[in-house]
Amino acid sequence: MQVEWTSYSSPIGMLTVVECEAGPLAVEFPHRAMTIKWAVRLRAAIPELHIAQGECRITTKWLDEYFTGSSRPFPYPEYLKRWFDLSPAQVAVFKTLRKIPLGETRSYDDVARATGLHPRQIGWLVSANHLAILIPCHRVVGKDGSLVGYGGGLARKRWLLDHELRAAGVVLR
């Protein structure tokens, strides 16, 4: 079995992309990609795994569409459970994040109510998302609407939210 990885140049900086034949396994900012030790985690799931630099066509195509403002919603990657030991709480949170429409935000409390989990647990689970942008953790904000916590930094979070508003046709002043 083989997995590809590549560095993707985006308007918010470089992203590390890791992809299997079914689709993306990780989309991370380089400093986070090093700390999640994705290669070690994947080899733990499949010891005979071959990891090579490649094009990661599925993921880079979706990212290209996203950054040009013409993306479609990314379907929840059910295949992740083959690769990672995801808890039911993680799956619930990731699926809830997927339901936040482009250009909209939800608070940690909103996500907590939707999943039946505690808001502090939501913060931890959102930060464990390794599919940045595809599973839109950047759309989660503080209770008062303030920008809080994002693995890529708050400036990137603001850029992504502004980009989505522009793509949705909202004029920013």
Helical amount = 40-55%
Spatial separation of the terminal alpha carbons? 49 Å
Write down the Rg: 16 Å
Structural class: alpha/beta
Beta-strand portion reads: 15-25%
Give the total of beta strands. 6
Unreliable parts: none
- The overall pLDDT average reads 89
| Shape, principal axes of CA atoms | globular
How many helical stretches?
8
The gist of it:
The chain is α/β, with parallel strands linked by helices and 173 residues long.
Q: What tags apply to this protein structure?
A:
173 residues, Arc Repressor Mutant, subunit A, 2 domains, 4-stranded mixed beta sheet, two-stranded parallel sheet
What does this structure look like?
The chain is α/β, with parallel strands linked by helices and 173 residues long. It folds into 2 domains: 2-67; 85-167, Winged helix-like DNA-binding domain superfamily/Winged helix DNA-binding domain (Arc Repressor Mutant, subunit A). The chain is built from 8 helices and 6 strands, in the order E-E-E-H-H-E-H-H-H-E-H-H-E-H. The chain has helices at 30-36, 38-45, 57-67, 80-83, 88-98, 108-115, 119-127, 154-167, and strands at 2-10, 13-20, 23-28, 50-53, 106-107, 140-141. The strands form 2 sheets. Strands 3-2-1-4 form a 4-stranded mixed beta sheet. Strands 5-6 form a two-stranded parallel sheet. Strand 2 and strand 3 form a beta hairpin. Helix 5 (88-98) packs across helix 6 (108-115) and helix 6 crosses helix 7 (119-127). The longest helix has 14 residues, at 154-167. It is globular and about 50 Å long. The protein starts with a strand and ends in a 6-residue tail after the last helix. 31% of the residues are buried.
